[in-house]
Amino acid sequence: MPISTQTTESGPTGPGSTPESGQKPPQSPATRQQKAVVRPGDRIFSAATLIAGILILVILAGVALFLLAQSKDTITAQISDPSQITGGKGFFSYVWPLVIGTLISAAIALIVATPFSLGIALFTTHMAPRKLAPVLGYVIDLLAAIPSVVYGLWGIALAGNLTGFYLWLSKWFGWIPIFAPAADGSVSQTGRTLLTASLVLSIMILPIITSLTREIFLQTPRLQEEAALALGATRWEMIRMAVLPFGKSGIVSATMLGLGRALGETMAVAMILSPGVLTASLVVSGNQTIASEIAQNFPEAAGLRLSELITVGLVLFVITLLVNMGARAIVARTSVKGS
Amino acid sequence: MSKQIDIKDLDIFYGDFRAVDGVQMQIKPRSVTAFIGPSGCGKSTVLRTLNRMHEVIPGASVSGEVLMDGNDIYGAGVDPVNVRREVGMVFQRANPFPTMSIKENVLAGVRLNNKRLSKTEADDLTERALRGANLWNEVKDRLNLPGSGLSGGQQQRLCIARAIAVEPEVLLMDEPCSALDPISTLAIEDLINDLKDKYTVVIVTHNMQQAARVSDKTAFFNIAGTGKPGKLIEFNETSTIFSNPDKEETENYISGRFG
Amino acid sequence: MTTMNTTTEAAVSKPAKLTSKQLPKATPWIVAVASILVAIVISFIAFGGFNIPVVAVLAGLINAIAVFAVSASYEGRRKAVDRIATTIVTSTFVLACVPLISLLWLTVSKGGAAISGDLLTRTMLGMKGVLDQQYVAGEATLAGGFYHAIVGTVLITLAACVISIPIGVLTAIYLVEYSNKNRLGKAITFLVDVMTGIPSIVAGLFAFALFSTIANVLLPGAAGIAKTGFTAAVALSVLMIPIVVRNTEEILRLVPMDLREASYALGVPKWKTIVKIVLPTSVSGILSGVTIAIARVIGETAPIMVTAGFAKTLNWNLFSGWMSTLPTFIYDSQLRPVSPGAAALASSERAWAAALVLVALVMVLNLLARIIAKVLAPKAGR
Fold this sequence. Notes:
The complex is a heterotrimer. Chain A is an all-alpha fold. Helices cover 68% and strands 0% of the residues of chain A.
């Protein structure tokens, strides 16, 4: 029986041979599996999935293109005669207060919601009784799914109860511009102010941020937690040593997702806020957000007004796009490497 | 059944990295060949090129020839799918399809390849394959239960039954016993002995005693260091490899003086 | 020398200290009750009465300080910090539960009081302010209903599913099985991310802009016909596709490579491996992800109102005429009541009833997703 044996000398490979040329893959004649037959079934199926993927590119390009196309009238009007635009002073002075209102309400919502979300997430993952924890987590997920229109309805029912609180705020903290009362010392009678809308927004994004943060906290490596406890750490020290550092980037991205939600949220604000001109104070009537402006005016809009609203929508699209990209950049920077 | 495999000048790459260098080997039909060697020496990689499974990993490519009874499985126009129907494979970890019953698992290869089977044909094939894998007596009463309910060793034999149900010419085994307890391992080793009457069996193993017990011929692979390609050091009768190898490197590895 | 000796001796002889001063288990509760009492007293003195929010905030603050003080004086600083952290985290949880419970309670109580079989089976056809005034005066039962909105919700959501599920699932398959992380795959992943962030009203504006442009080309000057149920379905699809892609992708990546390899090794072509092995293994996860996506878009209001308007009556035709869904019905009823003034209460009650139905629908869908994930998951056997 012939023994077919090894090819090269069994000595060490390294130094003698030139690793550069040795490590290179052979050129086209030798790498042959590219030529392998493609079955019709495979071709059809992979083409179908490819087309679906490309459709997503098309849809997104479509969103930008069609919004731009419908904005044409506004842009022409802005160039030829800015006084045609609502407010009579051109597009930018029309959209500016809306942008500010949107950013303020989203910021307040985020500032209020984030600490609470972290608290709930920590409570349900590390402090609640073992049997209760999964149930609480599930309830949070359910609350995240409640439609915003229901939050809006609830906000309307609630708004009236807040006037007393706003009066108190303006009395004691009126020297801070955002809590300043109107010239006659009064605050909104209906309570339907930007602050109410922002608070409802914060309650809306609370379950979303919580359920994302919860997931991150649950993923904390068990070994790291146990290592901390084994060093004699108290529960809180363990959370600070193991859980929070691990979840840092996750918390940031969850918060950013919440911010995106708050920026684009239409209904709760549209239903609660009685809109008005931009004012610094949040406890008197006034202010407006982009999404709410569109929702409140779109049904009756036609012609140039319609085009204006779509242009405003385009502005909102750009703002959320920027926020999301910024969020991704932050997450990429803060994420734990090599863990 | 059963074919001879000739490997000529086989180089294997992952992207730009040369994983295995210049393998020459002739595997006789109806024999058991064992591949041994330290971790990362390329023995599993070589095994996977014998049914073109390495292509599943993105960026993998080969040069050289692998001839089955004289036909190059890397030749122009060769369909890897057809190659794999001729060359069955059993993996390190038992991987029965979780959505299928024991019987469906055995018939999966045939059914998925568009062959219509009558009820009796299907029953016959199931029994034949399960008997071939020494599993029939243990599962004949629960053929319609999920395959994932079996013990580890039974699952691995189910995977062997699934592989031989498509009636391949060659059976490749990639460390089939590494996740099993000693009793299950013994059952698989007995099975390998039976299988060699019908199939050309190639087995990769970490366990040198296992190679000594089951194989007719043994190939020893080694690697000079990380980042270097793996090489075939010696290919010989198993008895020779384990008693009086030609190469000192082989001797060092066998006797545990490796490194 | 002597000092060294004594320390060594002390270290050897001193037994390990395993017990430390610990507050009795009931202490936090006692402190909490005391804090609430103090808060009530302060509320009476400073605000002249029992004021729930004031008491709650004060009690929380006093409790936190008291817990820290008691624990620090008895158990030491580290333990005290641990206790105060626990107290703060627990109170944020309790505090955050208040509005959420209030929301659920209002929905169930207000909606439950107003809902009736008639509301579920009637539309707003022939609705007049007089009828609502009679109801508020107690002379008649609540008129009108939202059968048309339920039908609209179901039709529009179904149409959105028909569009987005195939696109979403196929895209996920492309990303997981075919793209090999190539440039196109990365671009699609990025754009799916971007799509997730599209505000829902912008999705609505897009669908409206798309169809009114098409309508303008076909029938110049008739952009109004662009507002249909189908336009709304397209708007919802823009929101639904990224959710379906994300969820499906995540599930497909969980399918072990082992199974694909086992199938390839049997000589099964790639597409068949995906269809017969990968998809069946992950079907429970995919379906549950799709259900979550449905639950998410079924409650959308903004995109519907800019694309399908507000219909008062039943419309089964997705391709012509306005349509209502439950969310737009709620919005419309609340903000534009049939009869303004005191009788607006009737519209508000209809809105709450519809809200109850909508919330129930969303909850059922979420539960369904859980059940699907459990029941259809591959059996572990034994």
